[in-house]
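User: Show me a protein chain along with its predicted structure.
Assistant: Here is one chain, sequence first, then structure tokens.
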Amino acid sequence: MTSGMPSSAGSARANPHPLDAAQGIWKVITASSVGTMIEWYDFYIFGSLAAIISTQFFPGDNPTASFLKTLATFAVGFAVRPFGALVFGRIGDLTGRKFAFLATLLIMGGSTAAIGFLPGYTRIGIAAPIALVLLRLLQGLALGGEYGGAAVYVAEHAPDGKRGYYTSFIQTTATLGLFLSLAVILIVRAMVGEDAFKLWGWRVPFILSLVLVGISYYIRMRLRESPLFTILKDAGKTSRAPIQESFGTWSRWKIFLVVLFGATAGQAVVWYTGQFYALLFLQTVLKVPLVTSYVVVAIALLLGAPLFVFFGSLSDRIGRKKIMMAGNLIAALLYVPIYHGMKHYSSPVNAVALTALVFVQVVFVTMVYGPIAAFLVEAFPARIRYTSLSLPYHFGNGWFGGFLPIIATSLVAVTGNIYAGLAFPIVVALVTFVVGSTMLRDRHNESIWAEVHTPGNAPPASAQRA
């Protein structure tokens, strides 16, 4: 336990909550969000440069095959995210939230920077793609532990009645991380020129991760442990076997499956369609110039970012479920006409119209993603929250979301229909709408401090309902 934290329930009441002392909620949000944004930047810089990476680490005799192999390597990082969720979720529930997401930050930053220094296929042959896959595995494991830690950490500092609002700032980080990756790519490309960027400049965004991670690590080291977890630990109420408690019975697995298919699977495909697949569709299918496609998506992301907070805050008032289900349904109904519109405005390129169409997709993203951190935190008890929350989130985002680009691109390649890739996100979003609408329980009016509502462990005043 870090210095400055109370060592007993009594001292917890004397200095009850970091919100009442030096560690205010905005310090917590800033430190958590900056670190998580950098981890998303690290993770998505790979996908943002997929077209170039395919020429660097795979044989160049078949560009389409090389691109698909790059997307598969990208997907590998998503495939292992559930395993990272179990490893770091267990650490977070046993040892503490802070230690777990400090470890994930360092692993992510180190593996990302290593990609920037990795020799290409022409220099070391088959060892290049093998090393690239291993580094993506490390990135996926790290991200599997990062998100859950940041979401739980912020939620366990936030007062009841405002969890959706405060955790929504964490929800902006994935989009801002993607935006930051696109911005860095554009800046470096402009500074070194197109030819130099393809030759060596693409490595700069990866290597830059070292600086960003160093700053974030310094900020996070100054934080203290979650107050709710501290009270549980002082009272001896933390879990000794969080994986067993989370998934050791059929009733727990049922909760996992309902949360997966009723919330995170649909959220994942809407997120990756509206932001990541939109970029790939512009670049590889519609052949929109790279710089134009980056600018279009970057502007749409920037315009849409405040809506995460809007829908997160709205969910505190009307509930998480209504907003998330509406986002899934509307997205499923409108994807086909939106992508027909993107095709129409791609030749000749109408950047304003394309930006508007991507922005509409980002709105869907904010509806399904803005409230989901608070929803997941409320779905599981604090003693096993990190583990229980992380697994369905990363199964949804890792497997349904992470495999979406390669599934969609493969469907287009096999059928010859440029809209065939949309079938996957549409079906998954509709399944989530049906399962979520009928089986999810909305707990936005419940207190997550109920577990420590005992005579010896009264909740801190600042955590009471606002």
